[in-house]
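Cross-check.
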Amino acid sequence: MSGGTWPYDYNWTNGQTTQTDTGLIAGTYGITITDANGCTTSTSVIIAEPTALLGVIISQTDVSCYNGSNGIATAGVTGGTPPYTIVWGTTTQQNGQVATNLSSGYYTITITDNNGCTDTVGVSFINPSQIIAYVTGQTIICLGDSVT
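Predicted model, tokenized:
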């Protein structure tokens, strides 16, 4: 604020009467400033809000073998304000859109945007069934015979 004669009266369209208006949500806010001589000036400000930050799992490759660790997941982000930080809750912390070498289990992904807003999503990997070989009965073969 410059010019005019101090002190100033501040009148915001939302009823606040201080130089700084706080606790605002998205919208347009007007202010009229009156100096000690009764001179006035008015202006407005637009407070914009980005769309809500939303994390999603856009692809997943399941673990291929029992107790394996070759799962892969890819996270996607919409809304919020870029750039984004993506942190995977894996045994060895992984950052970025893609997490690799995942075993069976549940993993959380925390996404933070440039404004500090966060969203958490999860992805599960199921342990495939273990291959179990059974030998039934007894087969006797002679030297030189083969078994199928």
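The chain has two domains: 9-47, 54-125. The chain has a mean pLDDT of 94. Passed to J.P. for a second look.
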